[in-house]
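Take a look at this chain, tokens included, and explain the fold to me:
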Amino acid sequence: MDNNLSKLRQLAHHSGTREEHARAAVGLIRSIGPYRWAGLYDVTVDEIAVIAWEGPEPPSYSRFPISMGLNGAAVASKRPLIVQDVATDPRYLTTIGGTRGEMIQPIVHPSGLVVGTIDIESERVNAFTGHDEALLGACAQALLWLWT
């Protein structure tokens, strides 16, 4: 895990655009866990918009109001959100078909504002553990440079 976190931090020093950095970062995040889909999102005052994703298909909603979905709930609470079975949560906004579990990790700027999120998804119910929560929390810290 430490090696992948170092790689996430080192991306800041590579040449390329923000989108290229985000694509590389989301690929690393997806590879460090058994995640079927992973995405990085920007959070603005009004909306949440995908920057980069990796998985079997693009997200159904590339941008949506900040008040919608599990991403919106995680942004509002400024805390990680794990839903072990999205079929039981009315806040769920479909990203890709067949998703059963989803976890959102907010990216919180030192000012206290949520500036982005990491979204991971699984086709399995009960796919996420405390290990995943700790891992994505560390990834969020390692990637804060992408939003500053």
User: Anything to note?
Assistant: The chain is about 30% helix and 25% strand.
